[in-house]
Amino acid sequence: MDPLVERVLQGEKSALARVISRIENREPQAVALLDELFLHQKAAPRIGVTGPPGAGKSTLVTGLIRILREQGHRVGVVAVDPTSPFSGGAVLGDRVRMNEVALDPGVFIRSMATRGSLGGLASTSREVCEALDAFGSDRILLETVGVGQSELDVAQAADSTVVVVVPESGDSVQALKAGLMEIADIFVVNKADREGADRMVHDLESALSLKNWKDRWKPPVLKTVASRGEGIREVNEALERHAAWQLETGQLSHRRRESVGARILELTREAVTRAVLAKAGRPELEARVDAVLKGVESPYRAAERWAAELLDTANAPSP
Ligand SMILES: Nc1nc2c(ncn2[C@@H]2O[C@H](COP(=O)(O)OP(=O)(O)O)[C@@H](O)[C@H]2O)c(=O)[nH]1
Ligand SMILES: [Mg+2]
């Protein structure tokens, strides 16, 4: 076993931090580390918290960490926020509270910058969750900004997803139509100390009541004032109910199965692309680019043709 992996399994924070840096920097050894760590996961529940910038996600996460710690859990947090150019440790909303939880030996917080593409962020954050799980975090919180498809991908790595909105975001019902409805297991209307919170709750509930929830989990709509710690216990209870429901109905294994399937496909796609470029090389790609630029064929056609050729070669009986 890699000594670094051994140290992570013993719960050494500095070793975990190093493994995560290797994952983030896409260092070649990271794959070997992940490969070893994967087998030591205990399938800790992963809780996604998503919503627009400034909605209070980090503040809510801080409150959840506190409650989970009271319950004796070891908590791992991954915060992915491309809209917030935080530097150093300023991950969570309130520095003082953040320091309080970050100094707790039972809490590990990692913020992820916008390094590389957003698409890469989705798989990187998933890998970081795996490392946290092997490390011994038995609850993993994943904070992401809900703005684009990639963030939705990140949210989908979670077993339960909390979507945070605020009263003044009158457009959030609009956002629901754009896909948040699909991923929310729990809605939180935060900043309920502001005007319009009840109206927002009402709007969300009306939008939800239009759907048929038979045999499905109907997302509850909760109100919080995260900055004062109000309503967070109820959010945690809703998360516990959702986890229990998923276990009873088999949804949990279904969701994880889908997630692992998508992951294998994604990794296979990456591996195939790497292998093709290594073998055929850039010139092969350039020739196809030329054909597309000259209007000989479309990129769709070029890709289809290339894939067909590759599969043909792979399937051809050896001479
Ligand atoms: N009035 C009010 N402000 C809040 C509440 N929750 C968080 N905030 C503030 O909103 C700002 C953004 O919070 P943050 O947690 O960083 O939002 P994030 O970008 O979604 O992670 C901070 O200044 C928080 O103190 C709340 O319930 N009421
Ligand atoms: Mg935040």
Short description:
The protein is α/β, with parallel strands linked by helices and 319 residues long. Helix content is 56%, strand content 12%.
Can you put this structure into words, describing what you see?
Helix 4 (57-70) crosses helix 10 (232-249) and helix 6 runs parallel beside helix 7 (149-155). Helix content is 56%, strand content 12%. The two termini are 41 Å apart. The chain is of the alpha/beta class and 319 residues long. The longest helix is centred in the last third of the chain and has 29 residues, at 251-279. It has helices spanning 3-9, 13-24, 29-38, 57-70, 95-102, 118-135, 149-155, 172-183, 197-209, 232-249, 251-279, 281-293, 299-315; strands at residues 46-51, 75-80, 107-112, 139-145, 160-165, 186-189, 221-223.
Low-confidence stretches: 85-95
Mind summarizing the main beta sheet? 7 strands, parallel
> What fold name stands as the CATH topology of the largest domain?
Rossmann fold
- What is the total domain count? 3
Helix content: 55-70%
Could you tell me the mean pLDDT? 85
CATH class of the largest domain reads Alpha Beta
Tags for this model:
7 strands, Rossmann fold, alpha/beta, globular, binds magnesium ion, binds guanosine-5'-diphosphate, single chain, 7-stranded parallel sheet, 56% helix
Question: How do the strands and helices of this protein lay out in sequence?
Answer:
Layout: H1 3-9, H2 13-24, H3 29-38, E1 46-51, H4 57-70, E2 75-80, H5 95-102, E3 107-112, H6 118-135, E4 139-145, H7 149-155, E5 160-165, H8 172-183, E6 186-189, H9 197-209, E7 221-223, H10 232-249, H11 251-279, H12 281-293, H13 299-315
Parallel strand pairs: 1-4, 1-5, 2-3, 2-4, 5-6, 6-7
Helix pairs in contact: 1-2, 2-6, 4-10, 6-7, 11-12
Bound molecules: guanosine-5'-diphosphate and magnesium ion.
